[in-house]
Amino acid sequence: QVQLVESGGGLVQAGGSLRLSCAASGRTFNNYGMGWFRQAPGKERAFVAAISWSGRDSYYADSVKGRFTISRDNAKNTVYLRMNSLKPEDTAVYYCAADEDVTEATMEFPHEYNYWGQGTQVTVSS
Description:
Elements: E1 2-7, E2 10-13, E3 18-26, E4 33-39, E5 46-51, E6 58-60, E7 68-73, E8 78-83, E9 92-99, E10 115-116, E11 120-125
Parallel strand pairs: 2-11
Antiparallel strand pairs: 1-3, 3-8, 4-5, 4-9, 5-6, 7-8, 9-10, 9-11
């Protein structure tokens, strides 16, 4: 069992930056790939970024590539999402997710993840 808690969301003007954190607790002895997803009102939950357990491999949705950076600190059981050059269309609830067996082929699909945080709101004003 793994518990995930996001933090760092808030209100920011377009062009600004935020860093989201996702702290994991519970049974963390297994290897977990981790991802970030976001969901705007009335829309499907969408893939943002993912990172392998080792942190050696990271992946991004085209909409955030070059602006967002995913990283992890396994010693702290924490994954981060640094968001730069924020746009109003980035406004959403952001969720972190973890799973033991996600792959490059499945990491973008929410249903492939077993563990989810509660979400943190990011609002970008124009």
